[in-house]
UniProtKB/TrEMBL annotation:
Gene3D superfamilies tied to this protein: P-loop containing nucleotide triphosphate hydrolases
Protein known as: ABC transporter domain-containing protein
InterPro entries: AAA+_ATPase, ABC_transporter-like_ATP-bd, ABC_Transporter_VariousFunc, P-loop_NTPase
CDD domains: ABC_DR_subfamily_A
Length: 233
């Protein structure tokens, strides 16, 4: 599904990624965890093409990153900061993105608008919406498209409790229908409950990649994280 080999990225003299290797299988929910500056967002940005790596290969569904258009249609990315055109409506923005992915199922779009309670806000200018509402818009778009891989950077930021419940239910249905999810998070308790596997990134390398049930044999994910941080220092 997703294969990353020897991913490297530097900014000037600062090495951010120092040889990241990762494989994520179809139908898997993988949580990307690590401290601030570990390289989580840079890795996601390299996968999605927002940043070009210095070295290494990234392949999704046997399509290499070099095949730009075909590659980008394999995933949908929700960044931690959502940039929008403030004067267009959420409805127009969603339809614009759906056209890029050649998605025309408006019944499915209406379903997810109802799930996230966006019926009354969908015709308002994006500039009048809160971050949480913009995040809901991005999630509605993602689940309507149903790409092979959904990639998210801190996906729970700004969501109210009802939206969090809706998000979790949509994730469950998405992977049951063959989707794959990769997301970064600092909320270890959430990752413990949602994810099937965890990749722990520290100082630009993945130092642990394991199934969640195996990690919880000796305690919580939080305890594992603290122990791994201490051992790697």
């Amino acid at each position: 599904m997703l294969t990353i080999e020897n991913l490297q990225k530097s900014y000037g003299q600062c090495d951010i990624l120092k040889g990241v290797d990762l494989r994520v299988e179809k139908g898997e929910i993988l949580g990307f965890v690590g401290g601030n500056g570990a390289g989580k967002t840079t890795t996601l940005n390299c996968i999605t093409g927002l940043v070009e790596q210095d070295d290494g290969t990234i392949i999704i569904n046997n399509v290499p990153k070099s095949q730009s258009l075909d590659y980008k249609r394999q995933f949908y990315f929700i960044p931690d900061t959502i940039q929008v055109f403030p004067n267009i409506t959420a409805y127009d923005w969603i339809h614009f993105v759906l056209q890029l992915y050649e998605e025309t199922d408006h019944t499915k779009l209406q379903y997810f608008m109802n799930v996230f309670g966006m019926e009354k806000s969908i015709d308002k200018p994006l500039g009048s919406n809160s971050y949480g509402m913009l995040h809901k818009m991005a999630l509605i778009t993602a689940f309507t498209i149903h790409p092979s891989i959904l990639i998210m950077d801190e996906p729970l930021n700004g969501l109210d409790p009802l939206a969090v419940v809706a998000f979790k239910n949509c994730m469950k249905g998405y992977v049951e229908n063959g989707g794959t999810i990769i997301f970064s998070t600092h909320l270890l308790d959430v990752a413990e409950k949602i994810c099937q596997s965890i990749a722990f990134l520290k100082d630009g390398k993945i130092v642990l990649h394991e199934r969640v049930e195996h990690l919880l044999v000796n305690g919580s994910l939080e305890a594992m994280f603290l122990e791994k941080q201490a051992n790697e220092e």
